[in-house]
Structures are given as C-alpha cells and as structure tokens.
Amino acid sequence: MFKKCHACLLICLFLLWGCNPKPANQYKVVKIKDGDTLGLLSNDNREITVRLAEIDCPEKSQAFGKAAKKFTSDLCFGKDVTLIGNTKDRYGRTVAMVILPDGTNVNYQLVKNGFAWQYKAYSQNAELASLEQNARENKLGLWQDANPTPPWEYRKEGRSSGYDNNPYKKHYKRKPKLEDVY
Fold it and tell me: pTM value?
C-alpha cells in the first residue's frame, strides 16, 4: 500500500514539474555572433538575435574583437539566460540585458573585464560607467592599448571611407553608363 502511494506521489510530482515551463523571458544561448550579439533559442524553439543593451564590444576585425567574442562565449554559451528589456533595434534584434542563472549580468561582465565600452549614446548607467572606469585604470582587456578606438567610431570611419570592413562581402564596381564611355 505504501509503495503504491509513494509511486502515485512521484507521478504527481513529475506531472506538476512538466507543467511548469520556463518563463517567457528565459532562453538558451545557442550562438555567439560577436562580443555583444547572441543567438538565443526560445521555449518554442525559435531563434532570436539579441544585442546586449548599453554596451558596445570591438568589431571582430578590431583589436580585442575576437577576445570579446571568446569571453562572451566562455561566459554564457549553452546556458539558460533571462532577458531584461525587450526593445527592438533598427535591425530587428532584441536589445536587452542578459542575466545568467546565478544572477551574473553578462553586459556588466564584458565592461568590467575590459571587453566592451559603455555605449554612452544609449546608456546613462552609473554602474556601467564605474565598471568601465575601473577596467581603464587597471588596463584590463582592450584598455591595454594606449588609445583604443571605440567601435562606433571604427564603424563610422569604415562608412565614410567607402570601404566595407566585411571581408565576405563582394564589392562590385559600377558599370559605366553608355554616355560615360563616349
């Protein structure tokens, strides 16, 4: 009799556990696109792209760009994360703070360890400013360089020079119009 009750209790517990899905704002990290952009898998198996809010990591072709991507990967790849914030940027990416199960804020860790700038155009966060200042003073990560170029300036320089930094993108010359030939 006791064994039957015990078995019924276990079955009920498993059923209740199965009925308790992950919260809607919880995702699994399945891709690291660069230091500040992640591919996440939702509860319904849809992949979303998330841009880390209030920070900007070096581009992959910049100094410390690959190191920032590796740091992000080591910190959160394969883990379940929670998103705080749910705005969209002009590229359709979700912009959010990313929190690990132990409460670690991925965005803050990147700045704290010198792999990202506080993106002051989009952030007035005093804690991020303090983390960046501390990383600068201790010459952590990208702050080892004497004068690191912020990624927003790097991207702007790439656009103004007419050169696209993407090595995989083909560049075609414009065919001259017939009237330009003569």
Answer: 0.77
